[in-house]
Fold each of these.
Amino acid sequence: MSTTWPRMFRKYLITGLLVWLPVVVTIYVLWWGFKFFDSVLGNAIARFMGMRIPGIGILTSLVLILLTGIFAAHYLGRRLIAFGEDLVTKIPLVRSVYLTVKQIVDAFLHGTNVAFQQVVLVEYPRPGLWAIAFMTSDIKNEIHEKTDEDVMAVFIPTTPNPTSGFLLYVPRRDVIFSDMSVEDGLKLVVSGGIVSPINNGEKSSGGGNK
């Protein structure tokens, strides 16, 4: 009996944490986001109007985001945004951060992504250990010529922050193509393997190992 109670206590404590932790973290993230967006524009509006209206910042942010979406959906907006992105991508450090974050956001919002084409498995950092990676390109370039290999570019993200990682050129024969979507692959990486997609049992359409 004396050994049973500590085990039950530990079991119930962990179960309670598993129930409450996602709730608390979700509330905290939403509250932090609300305060951040409300303060950014809210403080500027307060100085202009001479009074502080709770929630005006987040409301203004939503309107600004909506107007940006409308603007970006038209030809002139797309051209101006493309011009701005072209300038950003010419700045060395900013370029790497911006493009990676853009890939992550696109993958979460759209489910599919041109830059992250497919989830793959590669042996990294040594044979026998498998890492989740994302195929970014299999177009032949100078690296193919120099290595005399049919290689493909894969991005191996870090956990839990997938905005950083490693770019590897891996021989196609050493790559295993996964059936999971890019979004599911990102969820798997961010959660550290806790959120695992269900295998649908279908064969991959990629050209990896059989």
Amino acid sequence: MSATPPPDGDWLGTRFVRFERRGSIGIATVDRPHKRNALTATMYYALRYAVDHVNRSPELAALVITGVGDVFIPGGDLSAEDEDEWLDIGKYLHNEAPPFEAIRHSPKPVVSAVNGICFGGGLIIAMLSDVSVASTNATFQAPEVFRGIADTGYSTYLPGQVGVGRARDMMLTGRVLSAQEGLEWGLVTRLCPPGEELDQAIALAKRIAQGAPRARMAVKREINEKYGLQDRMTMNASLLMEDEFTEGFLAFKERRNPSWVPEDLRTEGRV
């Protein structure tokens, strides 16, 4: 077992998510280029910890989340290769690993700097951030049903973000949206030239942090209620007990169509 230490201070528990400070702004950078920034369970928890770390630190006012290269976050790593595992991970298992609800309900501002591919869990992170600024090279997709995942998070958040019809289009067809389409649909609210997204996100985080904290939280609370409540039980059951997820995982890993695709609809490689 790896001797990777668990999160502590500015160390997020993994070398693949770096934390740095620029004055009162904390920056969490997903940096796993050899896996195209796909998130392991440890990395998901690292982002969750980063949100909590900023909220606990009186000297920090906001968090910015970004990625490296041409990828923001493509979602979870379906290769199931967690390259970081803490020796005492057991004591953290009672904490929910994904950062989604922590971002949604964060008292301090969270801003995403979407530098490129923004799929799966990465798109949820961008949507639930207080503001997201994206490169004009960014693309967006919610591919979960093609992986055998009943993602009730997307089913909850997308209709509130883009409307019911567009949510159906994204989730049921796996449609990939361009940066301009993402802006027009409301997945993000600002676009910028490639390479400028981090600076613009930091500037936005600073601006949001100038607002009155209690007033800001009251506004966020009302806005967050528009999303509704997620059916966590259904999603957990689909991930832990359904054969569709197992087959979707294997098909993705083996670069083939899942067995549920009818013979006359099969394509080369992944769906």
Amino acid sequence: MSYNVAFIGLGVMGYPMAGHLANAGHRVTVYNRTADTAQRWTAEHGGRAAHSPAAAAKEAQFVFCCVGNDADLRSVTLGSGGAFEEMEPGSVFVDHTTTSAEVARELHAEAESRGFSFMDAPVSGGQAGAENGQLTVMIGGDADAINRAAPLIGCYARMQARLGEAGSGQLAKMVNQICIAGLVQGLAEALNFADRAGLDAQAVIDVISKGAAQSWQMDNRATTMIAGKFDFGFAVDWMRKDLGFVLDEARRNGAHLPVTAVVDQFYSEVQALGGGRWDTSSLIVPLRKMRES
């Protein structure tokens, strides 16, 4: 079936995700804070560019969103000209932003009071996953709305799953980021160790990546870490934002996260070195700086 769809936020993730919806035959209206980006998207994919989130959401059966943080999400939903002003009864708002679980629950309750559905659906897979339609989507919200949205999410996801009520998708994304933080730090330390031990780090990776140490991070980031290339991928600034959500939630639920807290501080060192926009695999940079000093 073809639906009237809105997509709010055309960053490195949202731009290709909206494109997959258009390519699947849905009628897509887009909104982006930088209007030139929306115009470029429509020139490439067709559809229509709206002047506000509310205008994009008008008459849409499904509204998708992928913006920066809690404040951005509240602005495009509840702010002046926000999408919630024009959401139709029975429609579904699918939020792919990585936010706090608190704001997801807040917006779910607000949507319910207005007669439509809200689901928190953060993603993993990065820019390449979005471009290739291979994202993993972690979802919280009402089962009926999630089932209705599933075929559309399938336009750009290889895996999607409901993990519980509102906020559960965001909590699952926090689990994802805890895993990534620890894995990348372990890989950074391993590569630094190999270098200091006089080993050919790439040759070592070629061997151990076929054993129990293998991971997505090793397969996709080890070679670029060895080469010192970090001008791509998921930015350190965004990872620190995500880990802030993780550590705040842990303080509430009592989870002990000693490794995550330390890695968050290591990322702050990368930021201090001017690497806020570097890929998260740049955790190796402070280790190399320590050797130089």
Amino acid sequence: MRVAVTGSTGRLGSALVAALADAPFTGPRGPVAWTRADLDLDAPAGVVQALDRDRPEVVVHAAAWTDVDGCAREPELALRRNGEATGTLAAACAERGIDLLVVSTNEVFGGDREDRTGYAPSDPTAPPNAYGRSKLAGEQAATGAFERAGATGSASLGLARTAWLFGPPGRDFPHKILDAAARALAEGQPLRAVDDEWGTPTYAADVADAIVELLAEDALAGVHHLVNGGIATRATWAEDVLGRLSIDAPVEPVPGTTWARASVPPRWGVLAATPLPSGEPMRSWQAAMADYAPILRRDRAAGAGAMAAPAASGVAGPNATSPR
């Protein structure tokens, strides 16, 4: 199976390329790792050339503009990058009979439900911010493109929503917490972390493995919620990170309004995980963090992330870059 991955250098994209390289169905050549040169979200029509050149059977669309505050400041640009670009890719795939899996986010949901149950694929969407609206626009554009292909099209469309992604490369939430804790300790202050925003920390490598399973079992079509098990607040996640690295920094729970932001994240960002073909659920986020902890220790020892963001950025609060 010839699989192309957009955004192949990002957090999920790079995990996907690694997981697909180990998948027997991709053959000795492995996946096709597309970068911005192949799909530029600001000039998406160029992807037609990449499709005709590489002739994939499946495209996993992991590329996105995930700066949620940037999306709030420039909502029209967010719609073009996350909505219209996805529609352009989807139309090109549908016309060529190429399966497409679009990676999306928990932020398509309103986050205001009070029953404390995770959002299911069938629940109504109501994005609370520009990032969520742009990603929902991408879902809808892709769905429309494949519906227009109709009975004449042989391709399948899947939507894979995830949340609170962590893992290499780059400064994810655990790395930001380590930076913030170092500053707090140096100043003799507690680490302030948000305790009124709930979600599921999800390891990018686990999402990549789940997508590989969907492809291997020809189960791409439909809406999939791919998250690790369990829930957390930003504060409890911060405590977990610090505990695993034996950093004795007190955590002070605070409301999300402690930091002024251009974007408002959903307070209840929990997805109800959908079953995988194997019937086995994704492991808990705590188990995933146990695997990730050695990477955090190595990066900390090497001085990774030493250029910490200023305290006013609220790195112990919601990510400036979306979990998805």
